[in-house]
Design a protein that fits this description.
With 365 residues, this protein is an alpha+beta fold. It folds into 3 domains: 4-225, 3-Layer(aba) Sandwich (Rossmann fold); 239-277 and 338-357, OB fold (Dihydrolipoamide Acetyltransferase, E2P) (Beta Barrel); 282-336, OB fold (Dihydrolipoamide Acetyltransferase, E2P). Helix content is 24%, strand content 34%.
Length: 365
């Protein structure tokens, strides 16, 4: 079994008297790629800063490899941080930027030179030692920031939205570079982002946060295919979320129609929330025996790899549909959903649990 590298125990943090993190507990295994994902203000960056030592929790403890490091300053921790604004020194060339931390540690010149070459090879920038920082592209600067971090041989690399300033194509390229680096270096990555695609692409574990709470933690597949509440289902990709009644094990009622499902243990005749992803809404002919619901297509948008369409069923409910097959607006259709694609969730019992608004423009500080 993999060892726990980071353990956050009962962490609480306030800013100006307002609670930002509430009694958070989180364990992160060694050699994993963990993404803290959530909207602005959810507490993900605050959590990262407490792991890095830039903030001290008001309550709780931070453990690193079994040792309490809650009050240890950043420079005494076996980790490095790469920020969105890379914090490179513009008056130094590439080599001097990478060597900065090693010189402070008074390493020998030959050791430093070897480490610079090793780091530049890892980030595919061999021969860039004498380049001016200001002459580099955004993607190259980001790679230098990572090179500067990894020469210190940290056990943990913290990345605070490091791809946010890059254009889409470069951001996608760097996602694969980060995966490669993590695998080659064999160190633990903790990555902060509000971008769902980044999280799904790079992570082996995703921690979805909202309003200072962990909403769900799991693999990308678990988070996407089996959301535990409406917030996760809404925040990760597109979803159709509808009211339902769990008639019995493996049978759920949606808008008065009975659907087979694969869930059990919710009780009988119990109100539930139902999540159906738009790619799992299958459009069939109205007279098809599979059709459980009937409606009319109303809107269509071509998105390159698929069509995004709206179907309004006879009860007035709008269904979002993703398909490679075009169904023109005005067409009468039937809807079928396979049992395994109907996700059942308990309805929230409190406002904190409901926390469904994923849009918050206030930056977390």
């Amino acid at each position: 079994m993999e060892n726990k590298l980071i353990d956050l125990v009962n962490i609480t943090k306030y800013f100006d008297g307002e609670m930002v993190i509430d009694d958070l507990n989180l364990s992160i295994k060694e050699n994993s790629f963990v993404t803290l994902l959530g909207p602005s203000g959810c507490g993900k960056t605050t959590t990262l800063r407490m792991i890095g030592g830039f903030l001290i929790p008001d309550k709780g403890q931070v453990f690193f490899d079994g040792k309490d490091i809650t009050h240890l300053p950043p420079e005494k921790r076996q980790l490095n941080t790469v920020f969105q604004k890379y914090a490179l020194f513009p008056h130094m060339n590439v080599a001097d930027n990478i060597a900065f931390g090693l010189k402070i540690k008074k390493k020998s010149k030959s050791y430093i030179d070897d480490k610079i070459k090793y780091a530049l090879k890892l980030v595919n920038l061999e021969g860039y030692e004498k380049r001016d920082i200001n002459a580099l592209s955004g993607g190259q600067q980001q790679r230098i920031a990572i090179a500067r971090a990894i020469v210190n041989e940290p056990k943990l690399l913290l990345l605070d939205e490091p791809l946010g300033a890059l254009d889409l194509k470069l951001r996608q390229e760097m996602q694969y570079e980060l995966i490669r680096l993590k695998n080659e270096l064999g160190i633990t990555f903790i990555y902060v982002t509000h971008d769902q695609e980044e999280a799904l692409t790079m992570s082996d574990t995703i921690v979805v946060m909202n309003q200072g709470y962990i909403q769900q933690m799991g693999t990308p597949e678990q988070i996407y295919n089996e959301p535990e509440n409406a917030f996760v289902a809404t925040f990760i990709g597109d979803s159709n979320i509808v009211d339902g009644i769990m008639i019995d094990d493996y049978v759920v009622e949606i808008v008065g129609k009975k659907f087979k499902c694969v869930d059990a243990g919710f009780g009988k005749n119990k109100p539930v929330d139902i999540v159906i992803r738009p790619e799992d809404v299958i459009i069939v002919e109205p007279n098809d025996e599979k059709a459980i619901l009937h409606g009319r297509m109303t809107h269509v948008i071509f998105k390159g790899e698929m069509y995004e369409m709206l179907c309004v069923t006879d009860d007035g409910k709008e269904w979002l549909v993703h398909s490679t097959s075009l169904h023109e607006p005005g067409k009468e259709v039937g809807i079928y959903v396979a049992p395994e694609n109907i996700q059942i969730m308990n309805k929230p019992t409190s406002e904190d649990e409901a926390a469904i608004d994923p849009i918050d423009d206030e930056a977390e500080e």
